[in-house]
Amino acid sequence: MSTVERFLGLIRFSHTVFALPFALLSAVLAWRDTPFRSQDLLGIVLCMVFARSSAMAFNRFVDRDIDAANPRTVGRHLPAGLLSTRAVIAFIALCSGAFILSTLLFLPNRWPLYLAGPVLGFLLGYSYAKRFTSFCHYWLSAALMLAPIAAWLAITGSIAWPPIVLAGVVFFWVGGFDIIYATQDADFDREKGLFSIPSRLGVKSSLRLAALSHALAIACLAALWWVAHLGPLFLLGVIAVALLLVYEHLLVRPDDLSRVNVAFFNVNAVISLGLLAVGVLDIWISKFWT
After folding, report:
1. Is the Cα torsion angle 112, 32, 281, 243 positive or negative in sign?
2. What CATH architecture does domain 3-284 belong to?
């Protein structure tokens, strides 16, 4: 395994599909009324990749002792010795610097540059959340919900209802699936004094809360269809997402958590990429027919 492959594994690069499509969907919505610039598209992609890479590597660095004590995570890169602590710290610094530099692509709009530091601090702060709050899952979802807001602000220099409502979708969607994912460690977290909703409420109640969170995500999606003046194709996408989330909850039961990873990655990747595709097609068809 090469060093590059190890770093990509460290940050679970494939999981970038959870947030990047929502930033791009927000951008596509903004470009309906704002001139497209290729440098803005490049800036969104680079900022998303570098910010997430920095935050994920920082999380692995902060949690390295916890991961070493957990049978489920003992094979991760730092506990297993696949990467050194010094190398990971250097990687975090490199990605953080690259994130800030990437905001220069949005000039003359200076908002991304001004907000880069606070945003990065909030993203990195998530890594400590499980040490003091059971609502750490919603800190993560709040971090990811910044993606559509930041993309819109970077392109337009202002804020509007579509990115705010889309941020609501991300907040409740990510919070719900992160609760599902955390059910795997409910006993471990309780034993080690770590905070999470499953360790506090138990698996059964946590899955119910996750279902409620996903119901609110669907409500926000329907609201996005309304406030962004999207068409029937996007509405069909909303219905499809609702069905996929029902399927996700059917995969995971309190007495059977064996399919959590399928629910976590496979279904949610389809949701994020599918919504982007449906949104782009809906907007393209609307422009074509008008």
Report:
1. positive
2. Orthogonal Bundle (1.10)
